[in-house]
Design a protein that fits this description.
The complex is a heterodimer of chains A (395) and B (361).
Chain A (H helix, E strand, L loop, with lengths): L18 H34 L29 H34 L4 H14 L4 H12 L10 E3 L3 E4 L2 E4 L1 E4 L4 H28 L5 H19 L4 E4 L2 E3 L2 E3 L2 E3 L1 H28 L2 H9 L4 H31 L11 H13 L2 H30 L5
Antiparallel strand pairs in A: 1-2, 2-3, 3-8, 4-5, 6-7
Helix pairs in contact in A: 2-3, 2-7, 2-10, 3-7, 4-7, 5-6, 7-9, 8-9, 9-11, 10-11
Chain B lengths: L1 H4 L9 H8 L4 H27 L18 H13 L7 H15 L10 H19 L17 H27 L4 H16 L2 H10 L1 H4 L8 H27 L2 H9 L4 H16 L1 H14 L11 H9 L8 H30 L6
Helix pairs in contact in B: 4-7, 4-15, 5-6, 7-8, 7-11, 7-14, 7-15, 8-11, 9-11, 11-13, 11-14, 12-13, 14-16, 15-16
Classes of the chains: A alpha+beta (395), B mainly alpha (361).
Amino acid sequence: MKKQTFDSKPAGPKPWYDPRVRAIFFQVVAIALVFWGGWVLIDNTLSNMESRGISTGFGFLDESAGFGIIMSLVPYDATMSYGRTFWVGLTNTLLVSAMGVVTATILGFIIGVARLSSNWLVAKVSLAYIEVIRNIPLLLQIFFWYFAVLSSLPSPRQSVDVGGAFFLNNRGLYVPEPVTQDGFGLVWGGILAAIAAVIGIRIWAKRRQLATGAIFPTFKVGVGILFLVPIMSYFLAGQPLEWDLPALKGFNFGGGISIIPELAALWIALSLYTASFIAEIVRSGILSVSKGQTEASKALGLPNGLTLRLVVIPQAMRVIIPPLTSQYLNLVKNSSLATAIGYPDLVAVFMGTTLNQTGQAVEVVAITMAVYLTISLLISLFMNIYNRAVAIKER
Amino acid sequence: MAESTMKAPKKRIDPVRWARENLFSSWHNTILTLLVGYLIVTSVGPLLNWVLLDANFQGSDPSDCTGAGACWLFINQRLNFFIYGFYPEEFQWRVDIMFGLLALSFAPQFIERFPGRKWLGLFGLTGLPIVGYFLIPGGLFGLEEVQSSKWGGLMLTLILAYIGIIASLPIGTLLALGRRSEMPIIRGLCVVFIEVWRAVPLITVLFMASVMLPLFLPEGMNFEKLARALIGITLWQSAYMAEVIRGGLQAIPRGQYEAASALGLGYWKKMGLIILPQALKLVIPGIVNTFISLFKDTTLVLIIGLFDILGTVQSTVTDPAWQNVAVEGYVFVAFCFWVFCFGISRYSQNLERKLDTGHRT
């Protein structure tokens, strides 16, 4: 468009009218401005930090943190370093994001399909869900679950008791923890063998179908193998699994796995909120598959389930994947709202407490932003690879 | 003859047939209908009781709440705080004028044939911020000064969302043009700017604005907390705005660019007179949608200590004088946001349908 080519004859334009010269000029000016701006910022920051007595550099990461964190996936106590708090925060962020992505996807797909249901009541209920949830700020929903719902649960002594194994109270949800004993290796072996067998059967069934046309009930047989083989190996190995049950000790529960209310509130709110967006994406994806496709596959004699699995979903996925990616990204970014209710995610622990204690704003903010940038780029990368796999292959 | 003049048969609405088709078409549909119907009946009844029938609307102090239903008089009592924050009561007419002007410039946009609605909209985008700039902080023309630390509630939420969107429009447009530029360095700078802001959560941006901005600025120069938050929100929002506008720029056919060049227009005239007017019109629904998400995201400023509508409610529901009013408070805020967002999103859907020229493949 703008690339006009001029003859290099004497009557060419004056240099300041030549787009190529202008382009170089503008870009040099832009670079100069960026460098000048960056230099001013760095200069200001350094002099400000000097006058406030803040040291620079990443040496603070090795210093002892001296504060406790209510939940950590990696071993942590107050004597460990600030660098360790970074890992605690990062793993907590990744944990709640992963949990949220899984539940939001499942819920979103269910609601999106329900929105298109032929059942009037189901369709309207899912429409109401979508329109209510997505028009209310996420932070408000997190507050609602945390301050209004979960904190009104009974205290540990009066906790809701399900079969003596699950306990729900205002300190969180307690579930039994499986503890593997000697000989559990056999069960792992059984699980692996079952998976390998199912893959083998699938390949064999496909080959047989291509050769003879006979259909083998891969799904039913596969599910059977996946359940039976591990269970058999479990009993063969002499039931090498024990459950560590939560029990009331003093004022709180000990043993088992505990899900703290901060995590639960954040997880519920993130899942419900993101699901309402995913549902709309799924709906538009399914609607984008033209009716002729369904009719053609019916005309070929495919039953409903196969039509959905082989014809509709693969085509809908092409439309669904790109916006779904950005919803996943939003979920990861939104998990930073954890800081408002005190769930120790990356922003709350590292950008909150660590920053306040060390005062090294520049380094901490830079690291945090770099982490989110990396997560975003990684998710985009993986989803792009997947997208390429499902995209239209033009031959 | 007789047949050709016969009217089409009237469409009969038969409730039994409708129910059979839409609710009980097969055995699993019937089970589903009964199950969902049961859930609705068991949950809507108590909910209705709580919201309306058993609720308390009248009274002046906490003891007037019976506790059986919602305690709406809590909202009633604190409404002024939820709307104006700490803004002094004797100056609240200034805020009211701004609310009125805001409604006057944007409410007519919902009505198709309102006379001069375009001019009102234009005033809302250009004149209104200027009026507000003088009216709300005061300090000029004999108006008493009200410091920004006293602003709060719904008013602050609207200010944040409104300024965020108005300021990010021009910056976003420039960034979008830069990203489509043919100069590699300009394009690269814009891409990096846009992608970095889009990748980080708004909270980190707000933290950065409140913690790092003072470090970046030369000694002695400082902004108030609200201004810092606004700078953060604007930079962050302009990256999103740039992507929306880029979509519009890409949708303009190449012929338009070439025709403009053929007429001898330079870059800025080409963009300003030919491309942008078409592109911006195309992306109005997109801009409205980003506005909705920004509007919801403004609640995050309570984390850096500003009192927006959620912040004011959050600070009062813990008041020991009122017991367990958290749910009422949250429902009130949720309702406010829901009315705004749902209304605006319906408007944008309408607009989308109207602007859709039907050129689909």
